[in-house]
């Protein structure tokens, strides 16, 4: 069985465990254990050499209980049917946790976009929209960027959608668009800012100040770089960065400085040399990075990086899942045993989808907000979700992941009851 299949089975087990814990019915579990709808398509693309290639594509809409589905589309060779099932289910939980009138969606195409020309990439993007056209729209399902997709691809998606639908400018069908074609200000910073907010609120809860708190960060991309910026601005100290860039000096996977690394210096190194690691600081190994004695460990790069092989060595007091799924089931069990707190991805990195929702609102209403308005609204909406997770964890005496699941599922369950489905 594939890794994604195992992840789907594990997720179903967790949903069942939490459903039982919160007293939800078997009928409810039977609804949420599988996505409502999955489209599987074969997309033909005329290649530059005159041949036609077909690409496998998927779009999963997990739950419409609370509203239209929302979630990214990734272009990657690793995309599978099971993967979109897992990710769309987690998206349902993420949006419900924020109290948004949305469900979870996810899509993907099995392709290595680096192997396509610009023209082929555009053809594939337009073909994807043609394949799912009847199942997307501002009130049905709203795709967005994800791994290897971006505002440019959203531009192709939007243009094709308008053309296919009699010229209707339903640009709220997609989010993550360029600001010049209806995207929201503040989206680039949103996920990193949300990671910072979750940590700040956690520190307030435990009665500590962020001043002087040390953190180790994996990944200096969109999420990691902004999280580092806001944390350092608030007095925290970035003592190590682990990253994987093809331009990193040979042999280095992480840099360490007990006096603190400066995010601006890292940013400059990334811009000028292609890797934030190319700075004057002590080089350490991956193993040393995960075993650092620090207050906060923030994996902000990729999935499954803390598992049974390294969780035992983690010395941080708090692990914050800025990436999606960076801690495996086995890794989390070890962290729990060691009394290390963990803030789950569906809360920590929810700032991105929150501001995508703001983009949807701005497109629907035709009224656009400045950056300050976006930031203030994000702070208010995320603070509410963070505090609710802390309260639920205390109430049920469970960890933050289970608390977040209970909260999300209770909102989906309530909507299904009110709609007479259960
Ligand atoms: P990105 O591509 O901008 O940056 C990824 C960073 O991770 C880079 O610094 C890269 O060097 C590093 N990296 C990649 N592979 C690595 C490895 N094997 N070891 C160490 N470092 C590695 O991506 P991003 O947008 O910052 O997203 C990071 C994570 O956050 C992903 O899991 C993504 O799904 C999740 N996420 C992103 C957003 C968003 O708004 N961008 C929202 C929610 C969740």
From TrEMBL:
Gene3D superfamilies: Leucine Dehydrogenase, chain A, domain 1, NAD(P)-binding Rossmann-like Domain. The keyword Ligase does not apply. Keywords: Oxidoreductase. It holds the Pfam family ELFV_dehydrog_N. Residues 184-420 form the Glutamate/phenylalanine/leucine/valine/L-tryptophan dehydrogenase C-terminal domain. CDD domains: NAD_bind_1_Glu_DH (cd01076). It comes from the Bacteria. SUPFAM superfamilies: Aminoacid dehydrogenase-like, N-terminal domain (SSF53223), NAD(P)-binding Rossmann-fold domains (SSF51735). The keyword Oxidoreductase applies. PANTHER family: GLUTAMATE DEHYDROGENASE (PTHR11606), GLUTAMATE DEHYDROGENASE 1, MITOCHONDRIAL (PTHR11606:SF13). Belongs to the Glu/Leu/Phe/Val dehydrogenases family. This is Glutamate dehydrogenase. It comes from Anaerococcus degeneri.
């Amino acid at each position: 069985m594939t890794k994604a299949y195992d992840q789907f089975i594990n997720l179903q087990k967790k949903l069942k465990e939490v459903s039982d814990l919160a007293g939800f019915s078997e009928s409810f579990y039977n609804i949420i254990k599988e996505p409502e709808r999955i489209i599987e398509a074969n997309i033909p693309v005329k290649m530059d050499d005159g041949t036609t290639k077909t690409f496998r594509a998927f779009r999963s809409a997990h739950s419409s209980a609370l509203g239209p589905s929302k979630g990214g589309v990734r272009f990657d060779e690793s995309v599978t049917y099971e993967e979109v099932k897992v990710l769309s289910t987690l998206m349902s939980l993420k949006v419900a946790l924020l109290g948004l009138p949305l469900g979870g969606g996810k899509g993907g195409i099995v392709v290595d976009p680096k192997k396509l020309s610009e023209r082929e990439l555009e053809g594939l993007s337009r073909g994807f929209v043609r394949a799912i056209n009847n199942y997307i729209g501002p009130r049905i399902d709203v795709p967005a960027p994800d791994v290897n997709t971006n505002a440019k691809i959203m531009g192709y998606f939007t243009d094709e959608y308008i053309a296919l639908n009699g010229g209707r400018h339903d640009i709220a069908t997609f989010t993550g668009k360029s600001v010049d074609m209806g995207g929201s200000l503040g989206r680039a910073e949103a996920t990193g800012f949300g990671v910072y907010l979750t940590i700040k609120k956690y520190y307030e809860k435990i009665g500590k100040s962020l001043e002087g708190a040390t953190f180790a960060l994996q990944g200096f991309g969109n999420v990691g770089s902004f999280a580092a910026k806001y944390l350092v601005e608030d007095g925290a100290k970035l003592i190590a960065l682990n990253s994987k860039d093809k331009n990193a000096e040979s042999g280095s996977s992480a840099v360490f400085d007990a006096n603190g690394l400066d995010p601006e210096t890292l940013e400059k190194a990334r811009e000028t040399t292609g890797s934030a690691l190319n700075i004057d600081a002590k080089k350490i190994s991956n193993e040393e990075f995960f075993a650092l004695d620090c207050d906060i460990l923030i994996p902000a790069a990729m999935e499954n990086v803390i598992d049974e092989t390294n969780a035992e060595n983690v010395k941080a007091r708090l692990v914050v899942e800025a990436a999606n799924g960076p801690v495996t089931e086995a890794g989390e069990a070890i962290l729990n045993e060691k009394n290390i707190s963990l803030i789950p991805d569906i809360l920590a990195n929810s700032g991105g989808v929150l501001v995508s929702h703001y983009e949807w609102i701005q497109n629907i209403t035709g009224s656009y907000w400045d950056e300050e308005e976006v930031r203030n609204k994000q702070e208010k909406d995320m603070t509410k979700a963070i505090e609710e997770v802390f309260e639920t964890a205390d109430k049920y005496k469970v960890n933050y992941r289970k608390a977040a699941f209970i909260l999300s599922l209770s909102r989906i369950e309530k909507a299904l009851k009110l709609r007479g489905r259960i």
